[in-house]
TrEMBL record:
Domain of life according to the entry: Bacteria
Ligand binding (substrate): S175, R191, T203, R214, E299
Binding site for NADP(+): A161, W177, D207, S229, G301, H302, K303, L304, N305, G306, S307
Needed co-factor(s): Zn(2+)
Organism, scientific name: Ottowia testudinis
Known role: Converts 2,5-diamino-6-(ribosylamino)-4(3h)-pyrimidinone 5'-phosphate into 5-amino-6-(ribosylamino)-2,4(1h,3h)-pyrimidinedione 5'-phosphate.
Key word Hydrolase present: yes
Keywords: Hydrolase, Metal-binding, Multifunctional enzyme, NADP, Oxidoreductase, Riboflavin biosynthesis, Zinc
Name of the protein: Riboflavin biosynthesis protein RibD
Catalyzed reactions: 2,5-diamino-6-hydroxy-4-(5-phosphoribosylamino)-pyrimidine + H2O + H(+) = 5-amino-6-(5-phospho-D-ribosylamino)uracil + NH4(+); 5-amino-6-(5-phospho-D-ribitylamino)uracil + NADP(+) = 5-amino-6-(5-phospho-D-ribosylamino)uracil + NADPH + H(+)
Active-site annotation: E56
Pathway entry: Cofactor biosynthesis; riboflavin biosynthesis; 5-amino-6-(D-ribitylamino)uracil from GTP: step 2/4; Cofactor biosynthesis; riboflavin biosynthesis; 5-amino-6-(D-ribitylamino)uracil from GTP: step 3/4
PROSITE patterns associated with the record: CYT_DCMP_DEAMINASES_1 (PS00903), CYT_DCMP_DEAMINASES_2 (PS51747)
GO BP: riboflavin biosynthetic process
Amino acid sequence: MDFTHPDTWMRRALALAEQARPISPPNPAVGCVLVSPSGELVGEGHTQAVGQAHAEVMALRDAAARGHATAGTTAYVTLEPCAHQGRTGPCCDALVAAGVTKVVASLQDPNPRVAGQGFARLRAAGVEVVVGPGAAAARELNIGFFSRMVRGVPWVRLKAAASLDGRTALPNGVSQWITSEAARADGQVWRARADVVLTGIGTVLQDDPMMNVRLPDAARQPALVIVDSQLQTPPGARLWGVGGRRVIVYTAVADPARQQALQTLGARVVRCADERGKVDLATMLKDLARHETNEVHVEAGHKLNGSLMRESLVDELLLYQAPKLLGDGAGIAALGSFSTLDQAPEWVWRDIQPIGPDLRLRAVMAGRDHF
Ligand SMILES: NC(=O)C1=CN([C@@H]2O[C@H](COP(=O)(O)OP(=O)(O)OC[C@H]3O[C@@H](n4cnc5c(N)ncnc54)[C@H](OP(=O)(O)O)[C@@H]3O)[C@@H](O)[C@H]2O)C=CC1
Ligand SMILES: Nc1c(N[C@@H]2O[C@H](COP(=O)(O)O)[C@@H](O)[C@H]2O)[nH]c(=O)[nH]c1=O
């Protein structure tokens, strides 16, 4: 690596931000590198867990621990330093007090209540501010935080495992396993980055899944959300055996006895019905955002997938495709029938990668990343 080039420092800050991803939610994952006027690394750090130090403060502490002076340094940081007193103190004040003279930031804070305030405060204190390097990667890393701040809903990524002919289950409901162990292990990594894993009662009843993260180094367990209009989630289901995670059941009925039974198992039960007596999915997503959910990872059957897609609530597709043809069976999403091709929403490929014997295809709903 050429550490004399400014882009290299931002790449390092982005790598630090990546390390923060498992621990920072609901806060954004941010990395910060302090560089001396002669181009030496002075200190570095990333966001800690909620309520603890932000990246800039960690980098300043690291500089102090190394015995390096911070006066005259440039801070490379992947998000605008905060100017507000939140759960921690304002980072821009800390940078100014440490004598930092230039801040290179990837992005402005998307929170409409504070956006631009950090830059304004730094500039008012005589600090040179450059915005933009590393913007795309920094945004991608925190796409759920951006979505929640700007749109008031989480980023919704729908994962499905399908055959070449697009089947996700046989007509008798059997689907384990369509994709390889390697693809399923990769799916675990995507579950781990989400704040919520969301499934439907059809999947719970058919598969009796755990829906948890089983990676050896998992820093946290995403909450599990079950879309269950009639409160049919069985008290004996395997999902209750997963420790250290929240379970939230969204329902369309008021059934105090069933509600009590699920609450006894530790679930939060939320009533949120649409006019068909099903769970109102759009309201559910807003509710999840109010509870600081940045990213939702959907692993459901074709019915719930179809409803989410018909209401245009899915932002990203994470599709594992196995080189098999399964014939009859359920598809990825029950979308009903279109009469013209332009009724089918457009997706834009993000990346396509072989995973073991399968393919992993990622696509984003057209126009969805411009918020
Ligand atoms: N290959 C893969 O990636 C996967 C395959 N599967 C397979 O899918 C099959 C299960 O599919 P499916 O039955 O569709 O299960 P889903 O997980 O899609 O659950 C569907 C149920 O969700 C409930 N629901 C509540 N509100 C809504 C709403 N607004 N829209 C739609 N559904 C709502 C309905 O039941 P209610 O009205 O009672 O609430 C509905 O029957 C199984 O065979 C399973 O193995 C499942 C996951 C992934
Ligand atoms: N069949 C199928 C998948 N199915 C999904 O995995 C769930 C089981 O999760 P767990 O109990 O936590 O292992 C199941 O209910 C369904 O959502 N996933 C895949 O990667 N490949 C597959 O072929």
